[in-house]
Amino acid sequence: MIKRFTIKDLALNVSIVLLMIFSFSCNKKLEITPEHAYGQAVAWNTMDDINSNFFAVYALFRATMATNNDYLLWGELRGGDFASVQRADLKAVIDGNLNAPFPQLDEMRDWRRFYAVINAANLFIERSPEVLKKDGRYTQALQLVDVAHMRCLRAWAYFMLVRIWGDVPLLTSSYEGQFPTVARTDKSLVLGFCEKELLSAMDYLPFYYGGSDPIQSGNYHNYDFSRFSTTIVGRLGAYGLLAHIAAWQGRYADVDVYAKFVMDYMSQGRLTYSTTADITASNGVFKGRGQVGSDNRMLLGFTLFWDHGETGTSGFGHIESWTLATPYVAKSVPDLYVPSDSITLMFNDPQDQRFRFDTVQTSVVDSTRRVVAQGKYIEPSTFFSATPMFTKIKVFTSGKTTDLFAVFGSNIMFSRMEEIALLRAEACAAIGNTTDALSILNGRRANRGEAGYDAKKDGDLIDAVFMERRRELLGEAWRWYDLVRYNKLKRTNPAFNKLIDQGGIYWPVSTAVMEANPLIKQNPYWEGK
Question: Helix (H, G, I), strand (E, B), or coil: what is residue 357?
Fold first, then answer.
């Protein structure tokens, strides 16, 4: 009988890796890389080894994104809609002071944990064929699907690296010991590699796992569809990645093709759009696999289930650990909040279900004002306070709607159907396909109770699409990347143009990385800053 693995079974494989990642900032004498530890910790003899090593790569990637909420910090804070009055390190990211001497930022400047993921994927691609010869339970068909996963995860990791740092070393084979002394590869070549990898993997990726998909039918690594849902990379998730890689390069005709595929075949992946209630409920889109009933809302992302051993401390990938305060948790003021002027700018439709202003006063009445706030993206009672509370995402492992001693359980949502649809609207607007851009934009607006696009009120179509992304995706780690793409399209902001042209949109590289590899030089924009 094949052993049934859970995430908790991976502790032996992953704990060494994570321990060494977390030790870099504490132990200057430590020269062994996390890739080295992973290579020595695993075996390649049986189907049980395959199961363990397959999920270990996912667990390692999850930890890379979740640690200290870094995924959210890289994508959401810089130039975004959140502010902080209590955390100088978070304020430094918001202000773009990325070389500030804070431990949080020092850890964020280090790209080596992404290379731990890449090396683990490389190792799986190279070593999994050995198990075909040793264990008859491991079939060629399953190995091809597994390798397709690893190629997708490797491409995803490289895409993250390029968005954060620009040019990065491109490593396509595993290694042990010291990080290879390899110079950076031009970011366009790295993204070209990512696109090629994803397209090559596509023939082996089903629309969904553990069901009746002809590419992969029946249980997958001992689990059925109810366990995986869309939390591992399927065909539509890979196409979503392709769309974002093309968008980052400004290749909007390709974005249209890739995103349209996701939208055309979403039913085959059992994907649906979300209601506003789905998004803001504590047991909705941001809980676990992003399922509501039997439908899936998450196109691509990582679960952080407490009962599967996937989550850690309160800051382990959960934005609500920083954004909630009383009455939800025992904290008087949130670490991050959305200022009222940003809220007013974003939510300007009186019918918007996410947040709106009730001039009729059908909700709780504030006797001192003629406008009353409603909605669940922002706690209405806090709107007129100094720190309006962001309450869109609030998942407690206790299952409660409030928890004074909370441990949080929200997932890492890379993309969902609303996000990919609005990305396609962006692409259509950029290439002049006004008809489809309007159709998609108005469809998403109607689903949130908003009126249709009005050029006099909303500005040009590109502006309207990006503003809808700003509203819809608030708190989901898209704001900075959207600002970069928007300003590349518009070129109307001199200060941002300078950031783009001089490479200031990228993060500085950590001193530890440059000391370990003398071929790596600091991003020119950050030299001397």
Answer: strand
Tokens linked to 526:
């950050």
Among 133, 152, 119, CA closest to 44: 133
Measure Cα distances from 295 to 211, 289, 322, 490 in Å.
14, 10, 29, 37
- Work out the end-to-end distance of the chain between its first and last CA atoms, rounded to an integer number of angstroms: 59
Distance CA 460, CA 436 (A): 15
pLDDT of residue 483: 98
CB-based contact 122:171 (threshold 8 Å): yes
Ranges in the chain, pLDDT < 70: 1-41, 229-230, 290-294, 305-317, 358-373, 398-405
Q: What is the helix (H) or strand (E) element at residue 372, kind and residue range?
A: strand 372-375
Q: Which element (helix H / strand E) includes 356?
A: strand 355-358
Q: Which two tokens stand for residue 80?
A: 């975004």
CA distance 211 to 411: 23
Please check whether residue 524 is in contact with residue 505, taking contact to mean a CB–CB distance below 8 angstroms. Answer: no
Fill in the amino acid letter for 393. Answer: I
CA torsion sign for 325, 330, 331, 336 is negative
- DSSP state letters, 51-85: HHHHHHHHHHHHHHHHGGGHHHIIIIITTSS-B-S
Helices (H), 366-493: 417-431, 434-447, 455-458, 461-472, 479-490
Whether the Cβ atoms of residue 141 and residue 205 lie closer than 8 Å to each other: no
DSSP assignment, residue 135? -
**In 455-493, alpha helices (H):** 455-458, 461-472, 479-490
The residue among 258, 67, 74, 73 whose CA lies nearest residue 163 is 74
Q: Please state, in angstroms and rounded to a whole number, the distance separating the CA atoms of residues 56 and 198.
A: 21
Rounded to whole angstroms, how far apart are CA atoms 44 and 67? Answer: 28
428 Cβ partners below 8 Å, 6+ apart? Answer: 256, 434, 436, 437, 440
* Helix H or strand E encompassing 320: helix 320-323
Nearest to 154 by CA among 220, 107, 198: 198
Return the pLDDT at 315: 57
* The two structure tokens encoding residue 434: 């006004």
Please list the residues that pair with 220 across neighbouring strands. Answer: 223
The DSSP bridge pattern shows strands 291-292 and 295-296 to be antiparallel
417 dihedral zone (left: phi>0; alpha: psi -120 to 50; beta): alpha
Give residue 355's pLDDT. 93
Q: Among 327, 450, 332, which residue's Cα sits nearest to residue 381?
A: 327
Share of the chain residues as helix, strand and coil, in percent rounded to the nearest 5: 50, 5, 45
Tell me the helices (H) and strands (E) count for the chain, helix number first: 22, 6
Asked if omega into 327 is within 30° of 0 (cis), the reply is yes
Rounded Cα distance, 305 and 324, in Å? 20
